Amino acid sequence: MAKPKLAVWKFASCDGCQLTILDLEDELLDLAEVIDISHFLEASSAIEKGPYDLSLVEGSVTTAEDAERIKAIRAQSKSLVVIGACATAGGIQALRNYTDVAGLTRAVYAHPEYIETLATSTPISDHVEIDGELHGCPVSKAQVIEFLTATLAGRKPRLPDVAQCLECKQAGTACVMVRDGTPCMGPVTRAGCGNLCPAVGRGCYGCFGPFTGANTGALAADFARLGVPAPEIRDLFRSFNAAAPEFEAESRAHD
Asked: Are both 54 and 133 inside the same structural domain?
C-alpha cells in the first residue's frame, strides 16, 4: 500500500513554520516511515510530482503570481491545510493593508517599476478553499505532531480554541494585567504557545490570533482603563495577525 504523499509549500513568510517542522527531528524521521514527503524545498531539493494527499502551506499571498500558484496547488491537493499566522491571517506583512504600498515602493526602491506586488497581504483562505488551519507565529511543534498523527489515524485533531489565559491558569502563572497592569492580548488570543510570554512577565503578543468568540471590545476597554493610549491599543491588535477579521476590526476602531 502506497504511503500518503505530503507536500509543504512556501508563500510570503519568514520560513519559521517550515523550520518548526524540521525541528521535529526524531518525530520527523518517524513520520517519514509512514508518509512520503514528496515536496518540501526547505528540507530537500528532491521533488515528486503530485497529486498530493496533504499539502501544508506557509505564507500569505502578496503577488499576482502567488494568487495563481495557490490555485494550482489546491487543484493537486486532496487536502490543503494552512500553517502559521501568515497563511491564516496575512502575517506581519499585512501591515501593508493599512498604508499606501505604491507610495512606500516609490520611497524605498530606486526603480519601483521593477517591483510587482499586490497592495495587500491576504490569507490563503481568501483565494482557495482550505481544509484546516494551524495557528501561531510560528506554529507549535506539539500541534504539528497532533495534526499529522490525527490525519494518519483518520480522526479529528485535538487543537485548542480557547483563550491563552487558560494556559496561564494551568501553569499557575499570575495574570500580568491584574498583577502588574501590563497590557496583554491573552484574553482574546488562541492558546497554543505554551504560556510563553506571561511566564516571564510579559504580556501576550497575540501570536496565535483570535479564538472563536474573542471579545476584543472588552479587552480594548480594559486597555483604556489601564491608561493605554488609543494608538497603542490599535497597534496591540495590529501585529502578527493584523488581517485576522476580529483583530483588524478592533484595530481600525482605534485609528
From this structure: yes
